[in-house]
Amino acid sequence: MDQQRTLVDTVFDGIFKMLLTGEIPLGGVVNEATLAEHFNVSRGPVREAVKALQGRGLITKAAYFKARAVDLNVQDMIEIFQLRECVEGMSVKLATQNMSDDGLHQLLQDFEDAGSDGRIFDVHVRIAEGSGNRRIQSLLCDELYYLLRLYRARSGSTAERRENASAEHWQILRAMRARDAELAESLMRAHISRATEALQRVLDAEPAPVSEEPRPRRNRKESRA
Known about the structure:
The protein contains eleven helices and two strands. By secondary structure, the chain is mainly α.
């Protein structure tokens, strides 16, 4: 049982990485047979992983349609990022007030150590964890975590935006270490606002995915005709 759960988690992470990198394009078909072959596993773990990704809003599947990667449309993005701006603004304010001096120093040190060597360092999650607010942690680290990562990956898909985002993160963390909660909140809100604008430009420039018409159902009378 544990081995099966671990295998599903591995496939889940692998598919999510394919979504982040664009190997599975936005709005693209998610083919379970192809994924099973890609990960060299049976269809079972892939099916469970796809269901989990559906539950997080990353894959959609309606009746008579193939499963597809989520299409990040501009309106959904704006609504989610408006929510994110409010929640993460409060998150960083609370973290600045509640984290210990050692915790704030370590947060900035970890960020600087991560640099650009490709190691995973999610400053937004670390700040949410430091906020001390369980509702904020649940929203940013669980309910919206994967969808936000996907949106953020798209907003930072240009080298210029990645560099700017890194500089903005550094400024936020410096304000936190200085215990300037109001400045940290203002910087976080501005950071997310810029990310929203960058993502909107990316999404506006992308072609719309080709729609897929459902196959009509045939009733018994038609099948006998």
